Amino acid sequence: MIKLSEIDSNYYYEGNDLGYSFNDDVHTFKVWSPLATEVKLCIYNHYDTKTNTTYKMEKNEVGVWQVFIREDINGKYYNFLVNIDGVNNEVVDPYARALSINGEKGAIIKIEQSNPEGWFDHKISKITKPTDACIYELHIRDLSIDNNSGIKNKGKFLGICQENTISNEGVKTGLSHIKDLGVTHVQLLPIFDYGSVDERKSSLMSEYENSNDYNWGYDPINYNAPEGSYSTNPYNPINRIKELKTAIKTLHENGLGVIMDVVYNHMLDVNKSSFDKLMPGYYFRYDEEGVLCNESGCGNAIASENKMVRKFIVDSVKFWATEYKLDGFRFDLMGLLDVQTMNEIKKELYKINPAIIILGEGWNMGNSLQDTEKAIQLNAYKLRDIAFFNDDIRDTLRGSYCDLKEKGFLNGANNLELKVKKGIVGGINYSNNIITWGEVEPNQVVNYIECHDNNTLYDRLKINEQDEDKIKYMSRLGMSIILLSQGIPFIHAGQEFLRTKYGVENSYKSNDSINKLDWKTKYNNMDTVKYCKGLIKLRKNCSAFRMETSEEIRQSLRFIAAPNNAVAYIIEKENSYGQFNKIIVIHNANTNSIKINTNINLDWKVVVNKYKSGIETLKVNSGSKFIIEGLETLVAYN
Ligand code: CA
Predict the structure, then answer these.
(1) Most buried of 139, 391, 474, 520, CB within 10 angstroms?
(2) Per residue in 261-299, pLDDT tens?
(3) Catalytic hit among 227, 243, 361, 392
(4) What's the pTM value of the predicted model, to 2 decimals?
(5) Measured in angstroms, how far is the CA atom of residue 27 from the centroid of ligand 1?
């Protein structure tokens, strides 16, 4: 009998050929299952049939079972029948790259048949540094499902590709809206095969559009193939791959990078997972009494520290980056993964594309790993070039997610200036009293105020404020702080038009009326959309807001005296930032106006005020003194 503790030393498999591959008319299947006494390959002619043809597999010395088939089985389906301790379980290949409906079987396809026309030589996004990115977080279905989106393939991968669409009111929707806003990367909520939406119900467009079968998708079933409900025909295994690639290609051609949200920290259900049937007790974390750890809050946690688990995760990310030409990965609950796994992922991804962006949720959760081994914020210095969501700035601006009534800097809480400054400098070690995560660089900090989790900023502000005008200007102030801070800015789709989820915080399975991007809301808030667009334009045009090193930030950015509940700073350096010689930024969270003296007598060109933002001069402020309105961000340069 093999002990679990001996698995990593005696049964580690190095090969890069697990799963299904096809070469020289030979179909090869390989699966790792060292405890099994017998493994058979089951080939099905049809996705729904129960009858199959089985093939005996041979085991090698480290527990990899393999079989080579020379018959023509292209277009058929497969599973593995695994016998451990006399018990037979049929499992889907965890490495399966194509799937039947609902991911019940692996599909035997030639993956090159899934390439849309021009796939190999299409242009990819031009961004080379994470600090030049501006990330836009989006759920595939939310973008287009609104009746008013003007988009044909509503809620599908193809819905994200349709260009030049408008709403009944005439505002740009879908891809055209995203492009117009000027963001650089779209970050897609889970697009791998998840389990909470019935793909059979999604195949008829009329049923799909009216379905309440909605989910964010943080419930992985199969890691290496796309979710079927986003395809126009989930019964055809090639279709979902081709349509996702078409979406990625179209986004690339429109100058947008694509970041994939990956969930390697837990799965939908251990009992439904192939992992535990292939190697019981190995892929998930258990406590001393043998009970599954629930560090993820989702019932289980994947044991990334085990060598074959780590290998699976690294192989999986590599596969997506290569086959789908992705520009980045966002790791859900990254703090549950270990430092070594994340660094191996980084090493492999940089070989594929040195401009790839890696970000994650570095919250400190669970106790299976020592704190020193976790991929958490405090270990950022061990995870160079990997970025962490900055929940400090989020909570500082809007109040803690734990207490919905708590106010933040934007809506009247006091004594938060220092914390806002920590966000502005991008979480670096700036000075004796502005320290966040220690020795980190600006490309390791993702500043945000709203994401799919928790209330939208609008809903959160609405809890304490009923005046719509005030909510609008508080939101703009928040957007300004995020988009002008050092680090990587991140916005949630619809944040630019004051998106509401009607007070629903955890809308992971709420229906479209809560989750959809409502294009009427955009129409009603066009002035704020333009404001957000202007801030993005300013950021893109002025590298002072996108400094690459902590050293440059320490040298070029200095805070100046400001009244309570306001923060002011000047950015300047010897060689200047092009036309932007000196830049002043003032954020005033007071509802009344304030005065700031810069002590620098110049003709300051104001480009951002309470009402407008961008790179055009709104007015010239001569002298050293500024008056800033209540709830205003002012940016001026000379
Ligand atoms: Ca699915």
Answers:
(1) 474
(2) 999 999 999 998 999 999 999 999 999 899 999 999 999
(3) 361
(4) 0.97
(5) 26
